[in-house]
């Protein structure tokens, strides 16, 4: 057998043997440079801001912007012509209903990162099937569609049903209620970030609870929603409006509020 002559190799082998032989059960814990006290890991300032939660789950908390409370569409305009009022109808001072063919509606205000609460119901009268039933949508920053559809006993492509990020992410489960009941969406949205040259830096992310059930778990939004073709980020943008889609069905909305994040 060849003898080992390299002193470095011998040292390394020696160290390895020593490490193997070390019995850590007998090694006392190292002393901290300074003994820790409970207060040393307590942060007091600045004090956390107080927000009064709504009376019931789903009610707007005190710092929310109320975008629709059932009484009027003052926060909304026509998507086709933002100089015109929102063309949808208010029903029973309770909810709004899509007026098919009138076009979508958009908020007057623009938003980026936000927590959004929306309630919706499919039309009471069940008509058509697949994408033709109770179709609408919530477009974050006027681009990224959280699909609204009557997915109660209504098969369609999985990445186009209620709770999907349309043609991007199927919902984790189908939590849709019947057309006679109201549904809630609770959304946590982080806007995309762009590089100086206008290309995407960090994609938008979204978490969605549908009737309290997690359907999107902090997924990346892969770009502007297109009906045909792969999604991408064609241009940089800042805060933008939230819009609701007119897809030719009398879908209903109520209790819409938002917290800027
Ligand atoms: Mg839609």
UniProtKB/TrEMBL annotation:
Protein name: DUF1080 domain-containing protein
Membrane-spanning residues: none
Native organism: Euzebyella saccharophila
Keywords annotated in UniProt: Signal
Signal found in the keyword field: yes
Annotated 3-keto-alpha-glucoside-1,2-lyase/3-keto-2-hydroxy-glucal hydratase domain residues: 64-259
UniProt-listed Pfam families: 3keto-disac_hyd (PF06439)
Signal peptide: 1-21
InterPro entries per the UniProt record, alphabetical: AL/BT2_dom (IPR010496)
